[in-house]
Every structure is written in C-alpha cells, then in structure tokens.
Amino acid sequence: LDKETSGLLVVAKDVETAKELETRFEEATVDKEYVCLVAGRIPQSEGTIDFPLPGREGKAVGAVTRFRIAKRFSDTTLLRVNIATGRMHQIRLHFAQLGYPVVMDDQHGDFSFNKAFRKTYGLKRQFLHAAKIVLEYRGKNRTWLAPLPKDLKRCLESLEAISARRKRN
User: Fold this and answer.
1) What is the pLDDT, as a whole number, of residue 111?
2) Which long-range contacts (CB under 8 A, 24 or more apart) does 157-166 make?
3) Catalytic: which of 2, 14, 31, 50?
4) pLDDT value, residue 169
5) By three-state DSSP, how is residue 145 classified?
6) Distance (Å, whole) CA 144 – CA 69
7) pTM, whole model, 2 decimals?
8) How do beta strands 128-137 and 6-7 pair?
9) Which of 103, 96, 101, 93 is nearest to 156 (CA)?
10) Pair 25, 85: CB distance under 8 Å
11) 2 is a catalytic site residue
12) 74 or 26: which leads in pLDDT
C-alpha cells in the first residue's frame, strides 16, 4: 500500500506462507477491492481501465482496473475499485490519466482541487482505502474486510450533508 492508503495489508508469518501468498498475487487470484473518491463526476456507472503503466526499468506493463460507482456528489465520485493487476500507484495513475484523479493525491492529483477540498472538508490525505481482500488459502476461501477509517467517514458525512443542503436550495 502507498503511504497514505489505509486499509488491509497481507503479511505472512513464515517463508512457506509468504511464497504461497506471493504466487496467489502473481497469478492474480486475489480479489482486492478499494474504496476511493475521485475529483469530477464519472458519467458511466461502471467500467474497465486497461492501459499499460510504467514498470521496472521503465518498461510498460499491463494494468487492468475495474470500477463501479458507489455514489456521485456534486464534484466528486465515490468508487469501488478492483484491480486485476497490482502495479505501483495503479489506481491513482489510471484515474489521473482519465482526468479523474484521486482526491488529495499530492503526486498525481489536481493541486488546486485538493487545496479547495482540504479547506472545505478537512481531509489531509488521499482518499484511497484497501477495503476487502478475498483469496483461497489452504483450501478455504478467506475474506478480510477493513471499515473506512474515521477521517474518510467524516469526509463522506460532510459530502453527504453539503449535497443534501444543495438539493434543498
């Protein structure tokens, strides 16, 4: 996970387990779901982003990101995102390249949007959260869930309240 991304992280306690988990991630048999808020209103209700990103030694490598809209606000969109590949900054890069950067992403985001967003909503880090991991391990499907942390919950509550006020006016 990136430094400012909250949520789940898989850690192995021994070498054997680490190798097995590494294989599962390499074979893309792990379902990873993120929650993120992006700047702008994405028009379609779901989609797939499939274009390469820079890999090791600068060579382009395939990257696939699937998303579905969880909620649209006046100038942001809350998404549920699944990544079929696990490239560095994949979600952040894919959405930034589409023109919908992750809110408060200080590397690939929209600086002026982020400055205004921080002032209005008080969020101090990127809105990206590893919410769910599903994988088969030792013959059983295992699922781990991580609820949104307080700062992201507060941000969504503020977005909801402001949206409700705007609809009334």
Assistant:
1) 95
2) 158/120, 158/121, 158/122, 159/73, 159/76, 159/121, 162/73, 162/74, 162/120, 163/73, 163/74, 166/74
3) 2
4) 64
5) strand
6) 22
7) 0.88
8) parallel
9) 103
10) no
11) yes
12) 74
DSSP, collapsed to helix, strand or coil, labels residue 83 as: strand
**Amino acid residing at 50:** D
Residue linked to tokens 């789940």: 8
Q: SS3 of 117, please?
A: helix
E strand or H helix at 128: strand 128-137
Tallying the residues shown for the chain, one arrives at 169
Q: Which tens digits make up the pLDDT trace of 99-157?
A: 999 999 999 999 999 999 999 999 999 999 999 999 887 788 889 999 999 999 999 99
Would you state the structure tokens that stand for residue 113, as one six-digit string?
């949007």
Among 44, 99, 88, 41, CA closest to 66: 44
Residue by residue, DSSP assigns 1-32 as: --TT-EE-----SSHHHHHHHHHHHHTT--EE
